[in-house]
Amino acid sequence: MGPAGPHCRQDPPQRPRGPSGAGVRAQAGCSSGASLISVSGRIRRSTYLRLQLLAKEEHRLSLLMAESLHADRVAPVLFQPHLEALDRRLRIVLRAVRDCVEKDGLHSVVEDDLGPEHRAAAGR
Question: Which biological processes are named by the entry's GO terms (predicted)?
Answer without folding.
Answer: enamel mineralization
